[in-house]
Design brief:
The structure is a homotrimer.
Chain A lengths: L7 E4 L9 E5 L2 E7 L5 E5 L13 E3 L2 E3 L6 E2 L5 E3 L13 E2 L1 E4 L2 E4 L16 H4 L4 E9 L3 H9 L4 H4 L7 H5 L3 E5 L2 E11 L3 H9 L8 E10 L3 E10 L12 E14 L2 E10 L6 H31 L12 H20 L5
Antiparallel strand pairs in A: 1-11, 2-3, 3-4, 4-9, 5-6, 6-7, 7-8, 10-11, 12-18, 13-14, 14-15, 15-16, 16-17, 17-18
Helix pairs in contact in A: 2-7
Chain lengths: 348, 348, 348
Amino acid sequence: MFARNQWYVACTPAEIDDKPLGRQVCGERIVFYRGAEGQAVGLEDWCPHRGAPLSLGRVVEGRLVCGYHGLEMGCDGKTVAMPGQRVRGFAPIRSFPIVERHGFVWLWPGDPAKADPAAVPDLKWAQDPAWAYGGGLFHIACDYRLMIDNLMDLTHETYVHATSIGQKEIDQAASSTRVDGDQVVTERFMNGVQAPPFWQMALRSHQLPTDQPVDRWQICRFSPPSHVMIEVGVALAGQGGYHAGADQKVSSIVVDFITPESDTSIWYFWGMARNFRPDDKALTAQIRDGQGKIFSEDLQVLVQQQRNLLQWPGRELLKLNIDAGGVQARKVIDRLIAAEQVAAPGLA
Amino acid sequence: MFARNQWYVACTPAEIDDKPLGRQVCGERIVFYRGAEGQAVGLEDWCPHRGAPLSLGRVVEGRLVCGYHGLEMGCDGKTVAMPGQRVRGFAPIRSFPIVERHGFVWLWPGDPAKADPAAVPDLKWAQDPAWAYGGGLFHIACDYRLMIDNLMDLTHETYVHATSIGQKEIDQAASSTRVDGDQVVTERFMNGVQAPPFWQMALRSHQLPTDQPVDRWQICRFSPPSHVMIEVGVALAGQGGYHAGADQKVSSIVVDFITPESDTSIWYFWGMARNFRPDDKALTAQIRDGQGKIFSEDLQVLVQQQRNLLQWPGRELLKLNIDAGGVQARKVIDRLIAAEQVAAPGLA
Amino acid sequence: MFARNQWYVACTPAEIDDKPLGRQVCGERIVFYRGAEGQAVGLEDWCPHRGAPLSLGRVVEGRLVCGYHGLEMGCDGKTVAMPGQRVRGFAPIRSFPIVERHGFVWLWPGDPAKADPAAVPDLKWAQDPAWAYGGGLFHIACDYRLMIDNLMDLTHETYVHATSIGQKEIDQAASSTRVDGDQVVTERFMNGVQAPPFWQMALRSHQLPTDQPVDRWQICRFSPPSHVMIEVGVALAGQGGYHAGADQKVSSIVVDFITPESDTSIWYFWGMARNFRPDDKALTAQIRDGQGKIFSEDLQVLVQQQRNLLQWPGRELLKLNIDAGGVQARKVIDRLIAAEQVAAPGLA
């Protein structure tokens, strides 16, 4: 169950630069490629001739040419040509609203009439040269909501990421959760703690001392359908914490776009945006490698948790205070899905 | 759904020379081996004692000895002996009509009473020393009819086999299809074209020039249950094409026996028969390697097409003029299956 | 279908010495670990917080700490603590009766009230320093009863283990089977035969001649739920056979604990106990390697037999005299399962 009238991250621009990409998103098998003007396109991955996936073909002058018998598909899902054939009567295939923006290709799997490009999230860090971004993609066999839960309850860092970003104080500092319309914010502040290894590395790369206590913060922001942006950082203790001057702190935004592939699998686009040394590509690579290593520690837990939930389908999960972010996010999702079903029964 | 009262290629003779072969054909799990006179035998792959596959056993003096507890099975499916046991009352297992002919082992999965060895296809090239044959076997996860479609519409060569046998003129020359009883013939003639790489190789091996235009032909012949023989060749242009003298052309027969394993998988016996330099074993090997490489290019398309069809089970496929060969072949198959079901309801 | 009010071997002590072990036994997903006193513990592998498998966590001072968010689980299945939480109301998880004895960890998957530690089998060889034991563990995709059949009918040795312990005389010497309460004994005596390779090795290691005929015996003892102990040995011919003096024979006990994982897969704990040269660790290793090699020969037969049985679910198997041990063992199992279902309908 997914909200469908939403923009999901489907792929990165680089994934469709050289050849078509076949990827299932929200249960739909879709081929992504670039049309004649270089625009990103998303169509059903189905050749109307004999049903071969169009993603096995190639793009010639902006037309997607089927790799089986040469049918040429247009960006609107209508067949343009086929050797020796009149194609006017060929049944069209579904064309999905697509927007390329902020370094991602966004897909709208729902009603095209409702697809408003202005509704693509406004990612300030993606437009501002004072910021740099690096990230990656994982395919994980779990419900997308398990990953939202994961990111809205960072107490797991103490256990899953004990050697990098975890520290005992995360458990000890209570988090608070608030709901603001469709957004859910869970935040936690830890003052006068020692920076864990990942943040020591960040402090060093910022020429800040690592042997002094810091004030640390984590502000997790869920927004529909399944995005979680987390402001994280540390400041030298007593300098104002989150509000400390730029030369007293290291901060960044953990970026998480969680795109359902099916009910039990996701494409997880993760990354980090930072507003210091934005031109230092070596630092971008170093952070990405570190983050990739840390985030890969979540995979086994999520996959095995999903497996357990399927094995024991009837069992209740606890909803503790630390779970409030995920619980509230699920309520938002459920509300959006219910609203879609009222508007168009049978859609999902 | 397969026609059952038909001869299917089950294996090659070499596959059963040294030990029993367990293979599923038309949904039946069968053990193939050689009996006391060296004759090919096909039995249910089931030991009546405890259900172990007989194909794990060995052949001793023409008796198939179960590898678990030594039951000795006869070629008729009746237990011959078992250490310390009286076997007269043991339930027989099914013995399938088998014919070894033309370099293949043929299986009749249907009613044994109707199995006429004379109905095994008459392959002239297999009996004539002026011809040579080389081929191989692929296991492919697709409906056998998708492979028939593939072979009856060679416009796919332009796209799938662009670097070997494909050429734009295949698209441009219209094919014609005719039905003659249970046989379907689709043919295409391309005159005054340049020979594609595979045929240049063949011309060279025939001491014919490769820098001159050629007349090229493709004559696809479907016959039940799922055999497709394709006469292919090129002649120096203007010398009579298909009817040119033997010293002006290079031709061969592409041999395709498509044996269903299940509804969505096949054993694909492919090969090429040629009537030039039949004793040149190096040439046979060279052609087989080339053909194997070319035919392997079809695998991904067929497997992914099958996957798409299973994902979208209700969708119609187009039936264009280029698809006529496959469409007509399917009609023949459907008619044969329907006739079997009238004759023996519930058989398939 | 398993008898549940029974002790099953779940793992070896070494498997839980260093970290928790997640293993499915009798359809239950269980985490095994050592509590504060070093005692073996078995709990449902489910964290009551968010359903992650507890086996991904670690043991701290005898508490099992969930690897996701740090919930601390007690040996009784009740949550002991969780950072920042009151845990009194947390739903308990199931704790299974466990006994560590005779070099194995025993699990009682049924009604805990009926779990009597005194009912764990009394393995004399495991307690007596005059005996040594070595063994291993296989995971096999077959019904546990197929393995019982296998071990209660050793005529398969002639075919499956032809090069090690098999010999033609096994087929020729009739076995006899008797039932004694819940125990089933099948025995076979072969007098004046040549020792097969495995036993020649054993004779040599015992400084006994290998060029003389021997009397050989096999006494298979099934006991519920799925244990098979086989007394095997050879004595120099005419010295009393099974009852020959210790310096005239080589004997041992083949130990088989067959623990269902699911209806079609098992954990197979195999080994050999011997009462000669018990301190010779090199000999223990040598025998274990040899036995492992021999027992691995059964794997393919059992897996393929299971596959055949699933393919042909309705087919009857023969119940010959050689099958009497397995047939009687199944009757005991069926009787125990039926009795449990009368006592607690719906349990299994």
